[in-house]
């Protein structure tokens, strides 16, 4: 947990996804990892969760200030 200059709680994390998807008539194993960030009460709530716990996330993708890669900004979570 960190705090923004305005004192808002912020949590930087890495989300990992694994699933099987249908593509061109065949099953495909899909794995992905993405950098993510949450702010405020949501950041505090996520900080209390067990590492490796399963959640569904909603939010948006944005380019960070350094312009490298993408960051998923978490706006809502639900237990999976």
Can you tell me about this structure?
By secondary structure, the chain is mainly β. The protein has one domain (2-79): Nucleic acid-binding proteins (OB fold (Dihydrolipoamide Acetyltransferase, E2P)), CATH 2.40.50.140. Helix content is 10%, strand content 60%. The protein has a 5-stranded mixed beta sheet, covered by helices on one side. The radius of gyration is 15 Å and the shape is globular.
Which short descriptors sum up this protein?
single chain; 5-stranded mixed sheet; 1 helix; globular
Task: Summarize this structure briefly.
This protein has one helix at 40-47; strands spanning 2-3, 9-23, 26-39, 55-62, 71-79.
Tally of DSSP β-strands: 5
Helix content, binned percent: 10-25%
Distance between the termini: 23 Å
The coarse overall form would be: globular
CATH architecture verdict: Beta Barrel
Main beta-sheet strand count, sense and barrel state: 5 strands, mixed
The residue ranges in which pLDDT falls below 50 over 5 or more consecutive positions are none
Order of helices and strands: EEEHEE
Class based on secondary structure composition and strand pairing: mainly beta
What would you report as the Rg, rounded to the nearest angstrom? 15 Å
Q: Examine the coordinates and then state which fold CATH places here, giving the name of the CATH topology.
A: OB fold (Dihydrolipoamide Acetyltransferase, E2P)
Roughly what fraction of the amino acids lie in strands? Answer: over 45%
Mean pLDDT: 94
Number of helices: 1
CATH homologous superfamily?
A: Nucleic acid-binding proteins
CATH class group: Mainly Beta
Write out the strand line-up for the largest beta sheet, numbering strands in chain order. Answer: 1-2-3-5-4
